[in-house]
Amino acid sequence: MAPGMLDPRFSDPAAAPSGWEEVETVLATAGTYWLTTVRADGRPHVTPLIAVWYDARLYFTTGGGEQKARNLAANPRVALTTGSNALKEGLDVVAEGAAVPVTEPALLELLSGAWVAKYGEEWRFEVRDGAFWHEGGGAAGVYEVAPAKLIAFRKGGTYAQTTWRLE
Fold first, then answer.
1. What residue ranges in the chain does DSSP mark as E strands?
2. What is the pTM of this model?
3. Per-residue pLDDT tens over the stretch 74-126
4. Quick one: 59 exposed, middle or buried, by C-beta within 10 A (0-12, 13-18, 19+)?
5. Which residues form the Pyridoxamine 5'-phosphate oxidase N-terminal domain (predicted)?
6. H helices within 47-166, ranges in order?
7. Left, alpha or beta for 143 (phi > 0: left; psi -120 to 50: alpha)?
8. What is the mean pLDDT of the chain?
9. Would you say the C-alpha torsion 128, 132, 135, 137 has a positive or negative sign?
10. Considering only CA atoms, which of 108, 53, 112, 101 is closest in space to residue 80?
11. Fewer CB in 10 Å around end: N or C, the chain?
C-alpha cells in the first residue's frame, strides 16, 4: 500500500505519517467498531457493532428490521470507526465507503469462520439463503465496505492525521 498523506493542519510538526501495517492491525484486531449511517431524513445514526477486516475490506452484519439496515437500503454510504478511547495514546481509524450486501456463499462461509476466529463460538453463523443465520436469532445480512478513504489519528506524543484515498 502506498504511504498515506500526512495532513500538516492536524499534525505535530515533527510527526511522521502512520504506517499502513499499523492501521491494518488496528482494523483487524479491534473488538468494537462504530457504524455511522444516514437516516432517510438526513440525520446520522451511529451504533456500535462487531466487524471483521478481511482482504482490505470491513464486514459487518445487521438484521433486516434494524435501523441501520433501513438506512443502508436508501443510502449505502457509511463510516466505520475504531481505535482507543484514551485521549493521549493510541491510533483511531475511520474507514469511509459504501456498504454493499454480500450474498456469495463461498465468501459468506469464509467470513463465518472469520467471525468465530475473532469473536469465539458465540458468534458462529450458519450460511443460508445469502445471509448469516444465528441460532435463535434469525437472519442477518452481511455488508462489505471497501474503504474509499481511510483516516488514521495518532494520539499522544506527536499527534498525526494520515489519510489514504483508495478510490
1. 5-6, 33-38, 44-49, 52-54, 57-62, 77-82, 91-102, 126-128, 131-134, 138-145, 149-154, 160-165
2. 0.94
3. 999 999 999 988 888 999 999 999 999 999 999 999 999 999 999 999 999 99
4. buried
5. 21-123
6. 67-74, 105-119
7. beta
8. 94
9. negative
10. 53
11. C
Alpha-carbon distances of 1 from 28, 58, 90, 161, 166, rounded to whole Å: 16, 17, 21, 17, 10
Euclidean distance between CA atoms 115 and 53, whole angstroms: 10
The three grid cell numbers given for residue 29, joined into one nine-digit string: 484486531
Rounded CA-CA distance 163/142 in Å is 27
Cross-strand bridge partners of residue 151: 94, 163
Task: Tell me how many domains the chain contains.
Answer: 1
CATH of the domain at 139: 2.30.110.10
C-alpha–C-alpha distance, residues 145 and 77, integer Å: 9
- Asked if the model's pLDDT at residue 160 lies above 90, the reply is yes
All three cell numbers of 83, joined, read 481505535
Give Cβ neighbours of residue 47 (< 8 Å, ≥ 6 apart).
34, 35, 67, 68
Residue 98 and residue 120 in contact, taking contact as beta carbons nearer than 8 Å: no
What's the angle, vertex CA 26, arms to CA 24 and CA 27, rounded to 5?
65
For residue 44, the model assigns a pLDDT of: 97
Partnered with residue 38 across adjacent β-strands are 44
Domain enclosing residue 108, as ranges: 5-165
